[in-house]
Amino acid sequence: MRLRRASGRANHVQKHRDKRLLLVEDSRMFAAVLRHGLELTHGINVVHCASLASVKAEVAAAGEWPFSLAVLDLNLPDAPNCEALDFTLASNVPAIVFTAAFNDSTRDQILQRGVADCIVKNEPESIERLIAAVDRVLTKGRTTVLLVDSRAASRQDLAGILRRGRFAVIEASEAWEALAVLDQGEAIDVIITDTGLADLAGLALLEEVRKRQGEDAVPIIGLSDEGDARVAARFIEAGGADFIRRPFLEAELSGRVGHAAMLQKRIQALKLAAASDYLTGIFNRRHFFMTGPRLVEQYLRRGGGTSVAVLDIDHFKRLNDTYGHEIGDLVLKHVARRLKVLVGEEHLLARLGGEEFGILFDGLGMRDAFVFCERLRAELAKSKIVADDEELAITVSIGLATVEAPEAFENYLHAADQFLYMAKHAGRNRVISELTLLEALAS
C-alpha cells in the first residue's frame, strides 16, 4: 500500500477546510495514512475513533459543527457486526465503508443500506480511491452515467447496478436519444453503450460522439454479450475508454466506470488550467477558438441560431499610458471579474487578447443577446476602480453578430469586430449590432 504525494496540493488544501470527517478505524497504520492523506489533500478536519464507544461520544459532542462524512471499517473490537455503520447512518452522517471484510454478498448488503461508497482496503490504489471518493461525496459531485441500451430489461438491470454503486444514471434506449442528451448540454461523465443498439452500432455511436466533441469527448465504455475479442479490440482502437463483456461482477462495472470518470476529471482539470488566461483567470483565446466551433455546431443542430459578442474596454491605451501597466492589469482583472459574474456559466466567456473579450451566447437570438449586452455595458459603466486615490470610471464598447448558418468560426468573430469598430466610431460606451442598424434605417 502506497500513498502518492498529492500533486498541486496548494490548490486543494483549502477545499474542505470547513468540514469535519469522522474516521472510524481500529488499525493504527491505516488510520495514520488516511488522516495524513485526507488532511494533506483536502484540508479537512479529521476526527479519529477506534471504537463504537468513542464514535458515540464524538457524535454526541459534535454540537454546532457536525460531521459532514464518516469513513469507517465495518468491524471494530466492540462492534463486530456493522454496529458502527448502523449508528452512523442513524445519526444522519453519510458514510463511506473502507474495509477488508468484503465479499459479493456483503457488498450488496452494504450498498442497499445507502452508503455513499464501498472501497476494499487491500486493493491497489485503495487509499487514492478513498481520497477521491471523499472529495466526490463532500462536493456532491456524483458521477453521472449516460446508459444506452436498446433492451429494456438489460437497461433496467444495468441502471440498478449503477445506482447501487452511487452513480447518477440517465437512460437512453437508442443512439439518437443519447446524442440528443449530449446536445442539450447535460453534464455527462461517462457513457456506457451496448454494442448492438437497434438504430446505430455502439462503434458508430462512439465515432459520432468523438466527431461532435473532439478532444473533450466523454469517455465511452462498450458492453457486449459477444465473446469475440476482436469486437473489443475494434472498440478500443476507435477511441473507446474501456470494454466489458457479459457476464460481469457488479464491483467490476462500478470500478471501471469510476476509474474512467476519475481519469476524465483529471484530464479536464489539466485542460482547464491550460485554457485559462494567466492574468484574469477566465478562459483564454485558444480555448475560445477551439471550443466555439463545436458549440456553434451544437446550437445549430438543435435548430436555433445564436450570437457572438466582442467587447473592448474604452480608452485602455490612454489609461495604461497615464497610470501605468499595473493599473491597466487591475482594470483588466476588474472587468473580467464582473463579466464572469454577469455572464455566468451558461455562456462562453474568454479574454481574446489585450483589452478585448469574447462572449459566445448559448442559444440567445439577436434581440435577447442585444438586451444582455446592454445590461453588461450598463453594469460595467456603474462600477468604479480606485487608482492612486483617484476613482476611475470604466466603459466598454460591444459589437454583436448573429450566428444563423454554418460558417468558419472566424467569420462570426470578424462580423462582431466590424460592429465593434462602428461602436467605437459612434462615440464608444455602446452596443452595435445588425439590429441597431436596421432600427436606425427604419427611424
TrEMBL record:
Superkingdom of source: Bacteria
Single GO cellular component term: plasma membrane
InterPro entries named in the record: CheY-like_superfamily, Diguanylate_Cyclase, GGDEF_dom, Nucleotide_cyclase, Rev_trsase/Diguanyl_cyclase, Sig_transdc_resp-reg_receiver
Response regulatory domain mapped to chain residues: 20-136, 144-261
Catalytically driven reaction(s): 2 GTP = 3',3'-c-di-GMP + 2 diphosphate
Residue numbers carrying 4-aspartylphosphate: D73, D194
CDD domains: GGDEF
Domain GGDEF: 304-436
GO molecular function annotation: diguanylate cyclase activity
Alphabetically ordered keywords of this record: Phosphoprotein
Pfam families linked: GGDEF (PF00990), Response_reg (PF00072)
GO BP terms in the entry: cell adhesion involved in single-species biofilm formation; negative regulation of bacterial-type flagellum-dependent cell motility; phosphorelay signal transduction system
EC number: 2.7.7.65
Name of the molecule in the record: diguanylate cyclase
Annotated organism of origin: Sinorhizobium glycinis
Lineage, uppermost ranks: Bacteria, Pseudomonadati, Pseudomonadota, Alphaproteobacteria, Hyphomicrobiales
